[in-house]
């Protein structure tokens, strides 16, 4: 129905793929697929209430409530990346401004590094941060803090027991999660008087979406 990064609007993807492949096709959101994979095979096996964000080019999101994926009326629930965190902030591909993913994503990471004079992006930036390069570390600190602030709003809204972070940017592990935990503790309503959910990197890494898509297709068959 709508894909902000592909400029697809009402694209009959399932029918077109089905015609080409000659097979039944199920279309699922990649973050929903990743969360389902984590529920079947990963960290979310025993959890019932989970928020997942996948940090890649943008932010993907998925929500599990009482052990079931919550996809919403249009199947579009969990588009956390387009929650407005900065009024009149940076323009976003979705057509709005100030969306969370403009401050917390692979693209944002490269931009924070570029603003500080580095030309590195992607895995090279992660490697530089692991080598204690101050600019690369600073970029992860910025993205990590934005991650924590955004998650504070999601935790306030859904009170999950577990928050999973997946996608390419999550490969940095604690470089990202440590500042995110601090920002989450700082910004969460009732902090100090409630259990703050565990914040972990997803188990299945870049394969989570593929594994979840296969599992969900098996369920639909
Ligand atoms: Zn947006």
From TrEMBL:
InterPro entries: ATPase_NBD (IPR043129), ROK (IPR000600), ROK_cs (IPR049874)
Source organism, top-level taxon: Eukaryota
Pfam families named among the record's database cross-references: ROK (PF00480)
Protein name: Glucokinase
Organism annotation: Rhynchospora breviuscula
């Amino acid at each position: 129905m709508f894909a902000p990064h592909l400029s697809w609007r009402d694209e009959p993807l399932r029918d077109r793929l089905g015609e080409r492949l000659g097979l039944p096709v199920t279309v699922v959101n990649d973050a929903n697929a990743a969360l389902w994979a984590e529920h079947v095979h990963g960290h979310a096996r025993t959890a019932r209430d989970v928020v997942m964000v996948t940090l890649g080019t943008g932010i993907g999101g998925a929500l599990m409530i009482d052990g079931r994926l919550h996809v919403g009326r249009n199947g579009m629930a969990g588009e956390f990346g387009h929650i407005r965190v900065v009024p009149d902030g940076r323009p976003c591909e979705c057509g709005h401004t100030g969306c969370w993913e403009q401050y917390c994503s692979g693209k944002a990471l490269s931009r924070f590094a570029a603003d500080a004079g580095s030309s590195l992006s992607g895995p090279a930036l992660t490697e530089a941060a692991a080598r204690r390069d101050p600019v690369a570390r600073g970029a992860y600190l910025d993205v990590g803090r934005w991650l924590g602030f955004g998650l504070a709003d999601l935790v306030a809204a859904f009170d999950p027991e577990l928050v999973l972070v997946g996608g390419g940017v999550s490969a940095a592990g604690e470089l990202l999660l440590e500042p995110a935990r601090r920002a989450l503790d700082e910004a969460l309503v009732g902090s100090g008087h409630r259990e703050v959910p565990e914040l972990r990197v997803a188990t299945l890494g870049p394969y989570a979406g593929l594994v979840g898509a296969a599992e969900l297709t098996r369920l639909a068959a």
